Amino acid sequence: MNSVETKDLHLYYGDFHALKGITMGMKKNQVTAFIGPSGCGKSTYLRCFNRMNDLIDGVKIEGEIMIDGVDIYQKNIQVDDLRKHVGMVFQKPNPFPKSIFENVAYGLRVNGTKDKKFIEERVERSLKQAALWDEVKDKLKKSAFELSGGQQQRLCIARALAIEPSVLLMDEPTSALDPLSTAKTEELIHELKENYTIVIVTHNMQQAGRVSDYTAFFYLGELVEYGKTKTIFTNPKDQRTQNYITGRFG
Amino acid sequence: MNQLDKELLRIKSKVEEMWTLVDFQVQAGREGLVSPDEELAKKVSKSGKKVNSYDIKIDRMCENIFALYNPVAVDLRWLLAILKINSNLERIGDYAESIAHMLKEANPPIEPTLLAQSRVLEMYDATQTMLQQVRQAFFEENTELARQVIKRDKILNKIHGKTDKMLLKYFQTHPHNIHQSLKVSGIIRKLERIGDHTTNIAEEIVFYVDAKVVKHKQKKKKKDKGEE
Fold this sequence. Notes:
By secondary structure, chain A is of the alpha/beta class. Chain A has helices spanning 42-48, 79-85, 100-110, 116-129, 133-136, 149-162, 179-192, 205-211, 229-234, 239-245; strands at 2-13, 16-27, 31-35, 59-67, 70-71, 86-89, 167-171, 197-201, 214-219, 222-228. Chain A has one domain (2-245): P-loop containing nucleotide triphosphate hydrolases (Rossmann fold, 3-Layer(aba) Sandwich), CATH 3.40.50.300. In chain A, helix 3 crosses helix 4 (116-129) and helix 6 (149-162) runs parallel beside helix 7. In chain B, helix 1 runs parallel beside helix 3. Chain B is built from nine helices and no strands.
């Protein structure tokens, strides 16, 4: 069953045709990796799923994007509501200038939750899910900036999880992390897929191979190949995919 | 050409050198059957040592690529195939060496009727053709030729299958030459094994070029036919 699905999706930045008719479905409780050279449209495509591209001037989107069966460009869809279902983690950890606790509680408070006990429980659960609880449980009131880069990124993941999204988008989530933090984040992705549908953009081929169940290769705004990760990395069908993953591109 | 390509090319040239040695070992065995040459037998044994060191060297080079370059897709399949081709070539070299040893013990020249009835030369020619074709298939990435090699193995199996019957017949007519005939029988068995290893190499070529697994298919086909 697909959790995220697009049909003939086109995206234009002014005259520039950035996404050219992407039709694909991302399976529920699976990790799907987007790979491709810079400028191929993979991040643009990812940002369509929580309508982040709407904020950019001159963007025009055609086609259909369905999240858990709902067309997210329907007129009655509120973007805030959509983002409760679709969490996002960015390339660089971006904690708020608040305490560790308040960073995770932020989404709940913004959505009007006032029950203190409920918030405490949710913060603890989210930090545990993000494999950060043991490291921060004694310093929840400390500033998030006191954490290391890897811990900050897991805090951002905990913040995204706190509002219980069904889909988690990750845009190069480990590109600013050291190998140990990267390994922890990757382990986390494996654990999180039990409860979430994860879509990850990565420039790291080995990471795509390690963490994802499915891989999609994008090139010049087109979806070139999409399939099971083990097939893409052992026997890709398209020559362009083969050239890219074996480092013989261009 | 990127660094990985250069490394893969280095491995390929080592495989080529090893292959040339193994070809020489097999060829020398056939020559030894027709015209005994003690020097040639010594050379076969010496080549065996070189083949073994190539085996280790190629394994190490592949290990390094796995560790340092994280190969994927065709590179991964090629390296996996090379590891197996390397080990099959090494085994072929071992068999060729052991044939040279048997020839020495057989006290050549081999009695002409035994040579003719055993079809050992015919078997040798088929083995060498297979080896030559599989080598060509590897360097030209020609899976059609590799598949022909797989089929050709049947010729060897057929001759090998008739060896016991032939030997019995020969013992009856030549009771004084049992020692030599047993050695020829041993050589036939080794050639049959060389054929099997050559087939394995051909299967690896199909695997890395076409990403298709054809090994064990022949056995399965035979089994399925038997069940029908």
